[in-house]
Amino acid sequence: MSAARLVRIYLTESERHGAEPLYQAIVERLRRDGFAGCVVFKGIDGFGPRSGRLTARIFELSQNLPILIEIVEAEERVAALFEVLDELLTEGLVTSERIEMFARRA
Question: Check: CATH 1.10.260.40 for 1-43+70-97?
């Protein structure tokens, strides 16, 4: 086991970085910069202080659902990760917690 960080970024699917969705810009940048990996989750319901209720309803044509990006990264790379996020995010919520990482390799 090794010490690592779990970083979570809370967004909505309508947030943009230039012409592309912000979550896609973050994933591509992290991949390009050689970070360990991340996963994007789309929520079905939630709310935030500025966006009101975000929900998936069967008959809605346009949706602005919650997006959660989870990143697990070694402690020594977290400062570089936060620099990237500071560059890409203009507002939003980012959390970080220490975890024990168990990597099983073939």
Answer: no
